[in-house]
Amino acid sequence: MRFKKATGRKVVSLATAETVGKVSRFVIDVPQRRIAALVLRKTDKHGEILTWSDVTGFGDDAVTVADVGVLSEADGPMKELSDKDYQLMGKRVLSTRGDDLGEVKDVDFDPKTGLLETIHYPDGSARGDALVGIGTYAAVIDID
What we know:
The chain is mainly β. The chain is built from two helices and 13 strands, in the order H-E-E-E-E-E-E-H-E-E-E-E-E-E-E. A six-stranded mixed β-sheet has the order 4-3-2-1-6-5, with no helix packed on it. It has a four-stranded mixed β-sheet with strand order 8-7-13-12, with no helix packed on it.
């Protein structure tokens, strides 16, 4: 699945069948090269962070969670990582040699595990496990 396709997807509580938010951004665990959490646009007074471990399903129509109680507010390291400055989409891409590769156009991920599969930029793509880091200025990938 791709980030662009998944952005805006409803998040539904299995306990109540209510929409508790919509996917807004992805928080990336760089060392694990996987999605750590989803940042939600709130539709009620619930938290805005949904950790990947609390996702019970990620389908074509919705993301499901057991209950709204799994949502939380961003605090500690999650607060910084969930900030727009650390998002992969639209981030400048630099190779480990310092070559500017453009901006991240999209990212493929496994909807079951959250693992990053492919990072797409204007003139190519890189495996998800090539991601070295995400900072306020750029994402760095190892394409060697």
